[in-house]
Amino acid sequence: MTDNGGRTSPVEHGFPHLETVRAALTALFRRLTAEGIGAYALSISPAEAAFGPAEDLHLGAHRVASAVVRALRLPDARMVVSFRPMRDAATVELTAGPEYFVEVNDRFRLHRRDLAAALSHEVTHVLLHRLGLGFADTAANEILTDTAAAFLGSGWLLLDAYREDGLTHQKLGYLTPEEFGYVLARRARYFGEDPAPWFSSPQAYEAYVRGRALADREARRAPLAAAGAGERRRYARA
């Protein structure tokens, strides 16, 4: 998973990946069905994702990883978490399981509040791998992973890791902050679960509000209002 926390470039904003995000949501529903999606009605809680100040690094990392695994309904998947210097925030070795090896950027040894966010993306990779769900294009596949994490209940952590001020720019994942907000708002409307009280980052909350505004506008728009005949036929078949 990418991490621009150490870069000087500004964080990308807006909705540049929106069509891929929508395609990812469609693919997720087709693979899991509405009944399967319903199993993800409860998100991982802030308490489950929190890292105590006196908690042992490795024991805490495995506790948090287990909480993300439970949130994503992978009870028989075991995450082995290690730390090393690396450019990305984290990576996972995808195998047949049940044991998966996650390597996390060394900086999370100190910045532990965002460790659950990094693990959320990697555990979602494991879920999609087991489901056999993926996009052929690597960049689109990462968008699918972030979208699935956000819609299935652990990805709010990725948005909460977004912080931006005059000195630092940090964002985890491949969606923009507003796109994370859009997916989380779609989830909130679907499940009746509002993540707004969970955000510890003011910038994350603001991005959620902007994404929610777009989701709300879409919800008020009549289906296929601007669609042509071909799009209407494809919609009817789907």
Structural class: mainly alpha
- The share of residues in extended strands comes to 5-15%
Q: Please provide the count of β strands.
A: 5
- The termini sit apart by 32 Å
Query: Helix count?
Result: 9
Helix content: 40-55%
Provide key terms for this protein.
single chain, 238 residues, mainly alpha, three-stranded mixed β-sheet, two-stranded antiparallel sheet, 9 helices, 9% strand
Short description:
With 238 residues, the protein is mainly alpha-helical.
Describe it for me?
- With 238 residues, this protein is mainly α.
- It has one domain.
- 50% of the residues lie in helices and 9% in strands.
- The chain is built from 9 helices and 5 strands, in the order αααβββαααββααα.
- A hairpin with a 4-residue loop joins strand 4 (163-164) and strand 5.
- The longest helix has 20 residues, at 18-37.
- The radius of gyration is 18 Å and the shape is globular.
- The mean pLDDT is 91.
